Amino acid sequence: MNLHSADSREINEAVRQVLSAGSSAVLVTVIRVPETVSVGWRIGSKLLLIDSGKTIGSLGSAALDEAVTSRARDFVASRDEASTISLEEFAPAIVELRGARLLFERIESEPRLIIAGAGHVGAALARLAALVGYRVTLIDDRGDFVKRELFSSEREQNIELIAGEDWTRALRQAIANGRGVSVAIVTRGHKQDEECLRAAIAAQPDYVGMIGSKRRTNIVLEKLREEGANEVDLKKVRAPIGLDIGAVSPEEVALAILAEIVSERRNGSGAPLSSWRRP
């Protein structure tokens, strides 16, 4: 598809479809053009690279489109929201366009957090995640724990509350295709943990974590292992969930959990930022 066959309306419609489908894409825009460039290549040219492999638009050069497609993979892996990159950084062989600069932007829907268990920790995590900007779904099989009056502030109105006796069905429906989804299992017992973890692993979200002591989480993981769960999937489970910050209160535990979820999403190390100063 050449530059002129994809106007801004077509790009915008494709972006809307990506977001509504819970998919992701990279939008590349030309923001600087060298003075020596030939007519037909201009500032504002766009190329949308959808994770399905489909592309819409063109930057005006087949060679550049191909190079950008390859560079987009590195951009996605970086977890950056946006980045400006000079052509020489990734395609020095395209000498006729030397001096060009491009903007790479991540296109994806807001991150989602599914919380299984609306006890003290689950409720605190839901409130904190909503404040940070996650689209939160809070599930419990006890209807009294997910009443709207318990989450009545303006920010908490965006928390989706689900009372579901069938944990498996509720989780699978909430996780959907799993893209951009993190699952925190903070239920009240082994039986609920097992059921939720079994459902979460089957749905393949980006992140799965489960609260509990090492002994409790190992019991649940071993039970699923005996049932034939995939070992690779089990090793991805963060259990016990969260970063070690010495958390004690439900709010502190929620902070530790969300810190790990954000670190995983942003490809962070979880190490102190001041560690470089230490001998």
Commentary on this structure:
The protein has two domains: 3-108, no CATH class; 112-266, 3-Layer(aba) Sandwich (Rossmann fold), CATH 3.40.50.720. The protein contains nine helices and ten strands. The chain starts with 7 loop residues before the first helix and ends in a 13-residue tail after the last helix. Helix 5 (167-175) runs parallel beside helix 6. A five-stranded antiparallel β-sheet has the order 3-2-1-5-4, with helices on both faces. A five-stranded parallel β-sheet has the order 8-7-6-9-10, with helices on both faces. It has helices spanning 8-20, 62-78, 87-90, 120-132, 167-175, 190-203, 214-226, 231-236, 250-266; strands at residues 24-32, 46-50, 55-57, 82-86, 101-108, 112-116, 135-140, 160-163, 181-185, 207-210. The protein is α/β, with parallel strands linked by helices. Helix 4 links the parallel strand 6 and strand 7.
Brief digest:
The chain is an alpha/beta fold and 279 residues long. The protein has helices at 8-20, 62-78, 87-90, 120-132, 167-175, 190-203, 214-226, 231-236, 250-266; strands at 24-32, 46-50, 55-57, 82-86, 101-108, 112-116, 135-140, 160-163, 181-185, 207-210. It contains 9 helices and 10 strands.
CATH superfamily of the largest domain: NAD(P)-binding Rossmann-like Domain
Distance between the termini: 55 Å
Report the major sheet: 5 strands, antiparallel
- Summing up helix and strand content along with how strands pair, one would put the structural category as alpha/beta
Task: Indicate the CATH class of the largest domain.
Answer: Alpha Beta
Helical region count?
9
Strand content: 15-25%
* Proportion of helical residues: 25-40%
Structurally, the number of domains stands at: 2
The CATH architecture of the largest domain can be named as 3-Layer(aba) Sandwich
Could you list the spans in which at least 5 consecutive residues all have pLDDT below 50?
A: 1-5
Q: Strands of the biggest beta sheet: in what spatial order? A: 3-2-1-5-4
**Order of helical and strand elements:** HEEEHEHEEHEEHEHEHHH
Number of strands: 10
Radius of gyration: 22 Å
Report the principal-axis shape. Answer: elongated
Task: Return the CATH topology of the largest domain.
Answer: Rossmann fold
Task: Estimate the mean pLDDT confidence.
Answer: 89
